[in-house]
Design goal:
Elements lengths: L1 E5 L5 H10 L3 E6 L5 H6 L3 E4 L1 E3 L2 E3 L2 H4 L4 E4 L3 H4 L3 H12 L5 E7 L8 E3 L12 H11 L5 E7 L1 E3 L14 E2 L8 E3 H13 L6 E4 L7 H11 L6 E2 L8 E3 L2 H7 L14
Parallel strand pairs: 1-2, 1-6, 2-3, 6-7, 7-9, 8-15, 9-13, 10-12, 11-14
Antiparallel strand pairs: 4-5
Helix pairs in contact: 1-7, 5-6
Length: about 260
């Protein structure tokens, strides 16, 4: 099978490396000329592609000579380039690519003080309408099938939660439950999805446990030998807990790190 990974960063590169180990043929894109040799060293076919100022530069047609496209571009780099992503969707429609995975975020959900699922009745965050619009751009396209994969807070790899808050910082809502997922599980879920038969769906992905902000970040800081931030135990907060039951059921996936309080140092 062939896969093209748009955006070989924190998530895209580990995914591409895992797919290569599983004998996939993988193309990977970067916006950095200096990173091309790294992609080639990892046995990816490297591409220099940039999406900026509502334009796409690079050999997009050759990049889309593939079976599945995984879009791993952070939303901060997407939100002002909707027209360019319309162009990308049309290019996918005109290419051999028949399936797309669009990496999104559970930040699209409103904090409704309950567990949230992929149901259409789940309240949405009005500040994330641009991200939802990007999801729909691919999900509703008639010429290819798309899965939208909404990850919760990303940890693992270079993202050590013990470094998220400076020592001595005062942090609100220390008793609020958190939603996180480890890089190992991000890659594991994606590999299962790419080999699966369920398409045209939205999936949430978060670890099963939801410790409080104070519990989790205090423990993470102490593991690094750092003084934790100060977490206020105010009760006037809104929250949500992300359910991953759908993705576990559809892909028979077992989390490598279901308990966030038991993460390795």
């Amino acid at each position: 099978m062939r896969c093209s990974v748009l955006g070989c960063g924190w998530l895209g590169l580990p995914l591409a490396k895992q797919l290569i180990q599983q004998q996939w043929s993988v193309k990977g894109s970067t916006t950095s000329l200096e990173k091309l040799p790294l992609l080639e060293k990892e046995q990816l076919q490297p591409f220099l592609l940039r999406i900026d100022n509502n334009q796409i530069s690079g050999d997009l047609n050759a990049f889309l000579e593939t079976d599945i496209l995984v879009i791993c571009v952070p939303f901060g780099q997407q939100k002002n380039n909707f027209k360019a992503y319309q162009e990308l969707a049309q290019a996918v429609a005109n290419s051999p690519t028949k399936k797309v995975v669009f990496i999104s975020s559970t930040s699209v959900y409103a904090a409704c003080n309950s567990a949230v699922s992929e149901s259409e009745n789940t309240p949405m965050n009005p500040d994330k309408h641009a991200l939802v619009a990007l999801e729909k751009l691919f999900l509703q396209h008639p010429n290819f099938q798309t899965n939208v994969l909404r990850f919760s807070g990303l940890i693992g790899g270079t993202r050590n939660p013990g470094n998220f808050f400076k020592e001595g910082r005062v942090v609100q809502n220390g008793l609020a439950p958190i939603n996180m997922i480890h890089l190992d599980d991000c890659v594991g879920i994606l590999c299962k999805m790419l080999e699966g038969c369920h398409w045209g769906e939205i999936f949430n992905a978060a670890a099963d446990s939801h410790p409080t902000r104070k519990e989790f970040y205090t423990a993470a800081s102490l593991k690094l030998g750092k003084t934790p931030a100060v977490f206020l135990e105010n009760l006037d907060f809104s929250y949500k807990t992300i359910s991953s039951k759908k993705i576990q059921k559809y892909f028979d996936y077992t989390f490598a790190h279901p308990d966030l309080m038991a993460l390795p140092s």
